[in-house]
Amino acid sequence: MKKGLLIVFSGVSGVGKGTLLDRLMPMEDLNLAYSVSMTTRAPREGEVEGEDYFFVSKKRFVEAIKNDELLEHARFVGNDYGTPRAYVEQQRELGKNVILEIEIRGAKQIMEKCPDALSIYIVPPSLEELERRLRARGTEDDETIMKRISKAKKELKDTDTYEHIVCNDDLDVAVEEIRQIILDEIDKQEEN
Asked: What is the domain range of residue 160?
């Protein structure tokens, strides 16, 4: 059995990563496993422990770093996020293609440690559309939204380390583009 792919999936906050993943995950030909991240942020309404994130205390997060339990970790808008190593390695050994939804600093850590990782960055059609989407979520105040927009402007200038950039302007088109990128990588792996 071939070891599964490691797929780094990033994009600015509000670009629609979750919606894209909701469409991609059930596609059987992609054989995806979602890597659940650890975070110190509070759960949003409807988020489920162990499915959306592992919600932990700051103390537990620091302990995970010290014990080298995380493939990467980063602080984003006042909260810590990290990728648990054991789950990712287990799924890849089972032949699953593990998709990591992580922010850009964490993605760079992964790409340095795992040069074979497939990297995909999702961009919005415009910053105006991004702001509209963030406001439509209704989960954050104006100050937090403006922090996210400011961070997005900086991040969008720093995406050159990613192999693939996909614009999420039309959801169906973006889903198909990402699907094809993953299938092409699976084909390459099977040829080797």
From this structure: 6-191
CATH number where 169 lies? 3.40.50.300
Structure tokens that stand for 4 in this block:
């599964």
Does residue 51 belong to any structural domain of this protein?
yes
Residue 1 lies inside a defined structural domain of this protein: no
Q: How far apart are CA 117 and CA 8, in angstroms?
A: 7
Is 145 a member of any domain?
yes
- Residue 64, H or E segment: helix 58-66
Tally the domains of the chain. 1
**Tokens describing residue 58:** 């700051």
Per-residue pLDDT reduced to its tens digit, 78-123: 899 999 988 899 999 999 999 998 888 888 889 988 888 999 999 9
Residue 158 contacts residue 103 (beta carbons within 8 Å): no
- The reported pTM is 0.82
Name the CA dihedral angle for 59, 64, 65, 70, rounded to a multiple of 10 degrees. Answer: -140
**Distance separating alpha carbons of residues 92 and 72, to the nearest angstrom:** 17
